[in-house]
Amino acid sequence: MSKVLIIYTGGTIGMKKDYNSGSLMPFDFAHLIEHIPEITHLDCDLKVITLNLIKDSSDVGLSEWLEMSRIIEANYTKFDGFVILHGSDTMSYSSSAVSFLLQQLDKPVIFTGSQLPIGDLRTDAKENLISAIQLAILQKDGVPVIQEVGLYFEYKLYRANRTTKINTEHFKAFESPNYPVLVDSGLHMKINHQSLWRKKEENSPFDVKQNMCDEVVLCKLFPGFNPNYFESYLGEYKPRVLILETFGSGNAPRYNYFLDQLELMVESGIHVVNVTQCIGGGVMMGYYENSLYLKDLGVISGKDITTESAIAKAMLLSIESLSREDFERAFHQSLCGEISE
Question: Which pLDDT tens digit goes with each residue over 156-171?
Answer without folding.
Answer: 999 999 999 999 999 9
